[in-house]
């Protein structure tokens, strides 16, 4: 998790640095065309918001609310460090039904949805679109669930 725009870096810069390091320079250069295609479907992130992305629970631990506990811990810790933080954003793939159910159970609200209509992109990514979810840290129900 991170605060979008903190340290003068947005999430795209953070992720690009990470991917280029792990992929290596040659592989990184070979995927540039795909990155341009994916970037056409980006959902803007709000500066100053806490960001969650790419969570996975191995099958043996599903049903134990692991992600909810990780989110709650992260939100509490970030709220201590960034008391001005009032919004948390996360993303899921539109076709990941289990993820959609989990986000709704955890009181996240869907804020934006982008469906992919490009055949090349549909062949490249595992989902048919992506959904941005938000938690409003001013909402008393969210405060009770995540900050107390």
Description of the molecule:
With 148 residues, the chain is an alpha+beta fold. The chain is built from seven helices and five strands. Helix 4 links the parallel strand 2 (50-52) and strand 3. The chain is globular. The two termini are 20 Å apart.
In short:
With 148 residues, the chain is of the alpha+beta class. 45% of the residues lie in helices and 18% in strands. The model has no long low-confidence stretch (mean pLDDT 84).
Number of H/I helices? 7
What is the end-to-end distance? 20 Å
Order of neighbouring strands in the sheet with most strands = 1-2-3-5-4
Beta-strand proportion: 15-25%
The gyration radius over C-alpha positions equals 16 Å
Task: Find the count of extended strands (DSSP E, 2+ residues).
Answer: 5
Categorize the overall geometry: globular
Low-confidence regions: none
SS content category: alpha+beta
Largest sheet properties: 5 strands, mixed
Question: Topology of this structure?
Answer:
Blueprint: E1 2-3, H1 11-23, H2 25-30, H3 32-39, E2 50-52, H4 66-81, E3 87-93, H5 97-105, E4 109-115, H6 119-124, E5 129-136, H7 140-147
Parallel strand pairs: 2-3
Antiparallel strand pairs: 1-2, 3-5, 4-5
Write a concise keyword list for the protein shown above.
alpha+beta, five-stranded mixed beta sheet, 148 residues, globular, 18% strand, 45% helix, 5 strands
């Amino acid at each position: 998790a991170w605060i979008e725009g903190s340290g003068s870096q947005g999430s795209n810069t953070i992720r690009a640095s990470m991917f280029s390091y792990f992929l290596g320079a040659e592989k990184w250069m070979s995927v540039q065309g795909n990155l341009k295609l994916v970037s056409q479907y980006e959902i803007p992130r709000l500066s100053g918001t806490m960001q969650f992305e790419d969570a996975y629970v191995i099958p043996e631990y599903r049903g134990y609310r692991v992600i909810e506990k990780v989110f709650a811990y992260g939100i509490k810790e970030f709220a201590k460090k960034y008391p001005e933080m009032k919004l948390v954003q996360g993303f899921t793939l539109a076709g990941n039904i289990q993820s959609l159910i989990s986000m709704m159970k955890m009181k996240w609200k869907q804020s934006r949805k982008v469906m992919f209509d490009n055949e090349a992109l549909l062949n490249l990514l595992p989902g048919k679109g992506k959904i941005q979810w938000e938690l409003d840290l001013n909402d008393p129900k969210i405060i009770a669930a995540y900050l107390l």
